[in-house]
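Researcher: Structure for this, please.
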Amino acid sequence: MKTITVFTPTYNRAYCLHKCYESLVKQPNQDFVWLIIDDGSTDNTEELVASWIKDGKIDIVYHYQENQGMHGGHNAAYRLTETTLNVCIDSDDNMGENAIQKILDAWEHIKDKPEFAGIVGLDADPDGKIIGTTIPESIKETTLYDLYNVHKVLGDKKLVYRTEVVKKYPAYPIFEGERFVPLGYLYQLIDQDYKLLPLNEVLCDVEYMPDGSSLNILKQYRRHPKGFAFSRKSRMKLAKNFKDRFKNAIHYVSSAMFTKNGSFLKESPRKFITFLAIPFGILLNLYIRFKTKGEF
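Model: Predicted structure, token format:
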């Protein structure tokens, strides 16, 4: 069995998915399987992937499901993955140069240390520039929360997890009529029990596409308020300081306004902070409505 599953949730991305494929074909170390989660595509994704499977250049597993959104794709990937490690490379991104070998080299340092959930590495843009900042070399272990909130690292980072770890936690919830739950929900749960090994190596080349969620976050926020409210409740509960709890309470109030949930205060895990956040949540909600007017 291979060591790593590289999984890619995709929805109508046949026009760019070949870039990800080519980056995987170029990996000198082929100790991986590419798991493609086709989240209800209506383009020629299935035919394209079938041609790659026929070519036999890399090991590919194709799974089709009705559209559930990015988090639903992650649910399927974690359910189907059988390898020791897993890493997500989005359909508009590329596996970094020699990234599989870099992951395996880092894995040797922690594979016998069960307190580590996995590895956190770097993302870069198509020109090779690091997204955000690198990780301070003095940090030998961290959580994702501490990486951003204590060590003040900036920008998206690439996570490689032990499969046995991610399988311990609940799947992302699926809300009827919505297709998005922030992926950080699972990562924060893992942070409560495990550490990550920092790796100052580029594992993924990221290109933010016009139709991607990263560049459409306010629209996502408004289209999927139940998913965002769920995430904010979890973050409020697990946050380590008042500032973080209050910030998430503001967003929770805003999302509750979009869902017209009159019980939001009763359902909050931090009722007093949520009460204090109401005026700010109203302002945030009005701001998002203004910025997305004409879209709904």
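Researcher: Any notable elements?
Model: The first strand starts at residue 4 and ends at 10. The chain has two domains: 4-210, 215-291.
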